[in-house]
Design goal:
alpha/beta, 2,3-Dihydroxybiphenyl 1,2-Dioxygenase, domain 1, four-stranded mixed sheet, 5 helices, 8 strands
Amino acid sequence: MTKVTPFLMFNDQLEAAIAFYTATFPGSEIKNVARTGEDGPITSAEIVIGGQFFMAYNGGPYFKFSEGFSLFVDCEDQEEVDEYWSKLVSAGATPSQCGWITDQFGVTWQIVPRRFMELIADKNPKKVQAVMKAMMSMIKLDVAALERAYDDA
């Protein structure tokens, strides 16, 4: 375990969240689970999602996720953006804007193509501003449209 580990508190949906996340993101696995009784529900878990270690707990209705904490998914290309977006939407996620989407458990994800990060790292502030303006008008990020904004600036 690393020194600092994200700890997610679910409202009695931990087992479903573990199943969804480990099926959706390669490099995921269940490290350890604790149950209430031998056949009872999972109360806590140590899991890896896409290579990132997490602790998770069924905390009940007292805890709520917010967009103040989100999980950033580094996508190689548009195809990978589309794949994760589709899996999340199919499972009941709610898209917002700028590549953000909140899953059925209340966790917010940023589904971001690597090309976007490359474009906004440009030294030309006019190009960066054009890419940011284009991104702000999108729900799911579109690499081709981001590149057009960059090229047209």
